[in-house]
Amino acid sequence: MTTQRAPSRRIQPRGPESGTDRLAIIATVAVVLVAVIVIAIGYYFTRYLPPREHVLTVDEQKFTARDIERRAVYLLLSEPALAPRDPLEIVPKTFDQFEREAIIRARANAVVGDLTAEDLEREMRTLFLPPQPTLSSAATGAGIASATPTPLPDDQYAKALSLRLDRTGISKAELEQIVYAQVLEKRLKEHLVKELPKAGLQLHFAVARLTDRAKADQVREVVLRPGVDFGQVAEVNSASDSGPIGDLDWMLPQELRESIRTVAVAMKPGDVSAVTPNQQFFEVYKVIARDEEREFTADQRDKLAAERLTAWLGEQRADLQVQRDLSSAEDEWIRNQAVARYTKAVRQPSAP
User: Of 77, 235, 292, 310, most Cβ neighbours within 10 A?
Assistant: First the structure.
């Protein structure tokens, strides 16, 4: 009996096409891998590493996104009175503050003189002291004055400085630059206060503030009548949540909104303004009294000096080469890094 052998399978030799296909697959995989690596590297550089380009130039001073981010963290942790509450405002607020300090460092010493190394060291040593009490006029004989702070001794200063630098992430040189600008700004404001006249134009105002234009027109018609008490009408008809109403006491023209300031300066005692829009409100003003040479209070002098300082900064900014060059990616990087570092720091024990 003969056995039949199963037909054998012959392995067909692969032609050149199959080798080409294999190379094409390998090449495709390689291209995909390279693309993934490029994307990963790009994501790492844009999300985690600080952008290296200069984002702010003030005259010859150039600052990177990392510089702005560190200043933002310091602003949030150590200067809460200046820091914004809205995270979206962190970057523009930091730019404003950074720019202000750079302008002051560049120009204020020409007005008030430069700081010596000893001046800066003394200011650094008083930086971590609690707010100083004020001395009464009975104690000083010359009005309200701040008590002279006593600089911290070496060991306390070294510890406080180390904690501040560790918590905020800035260097000592950066902190010195901040303090340098703060001291020059303080001296500049004091200089501007001394230059002010002792007296000037002030207006004694009363205001009615309403949410309805038609009602505001009616109130104006009423208060124009002889013998009508403007303050009483204002208190009865004004919106309760609109801010100060009725008698506002003596005010500087500079304290008024620009839309009413020009009109107010020309008003005489007894004059009533037209209805003036103010955001969601409609206002009616009355001049109760006017004094061309009324002596300024200390608070008014501070306000006038602050206004002059703002004007001075605007003049210097226009004269200097100030340029912002911030992309949306850099803006996002600064904000995300600053918020993350701030959040991490507040969860740790606070430093002075």
Answer: 77
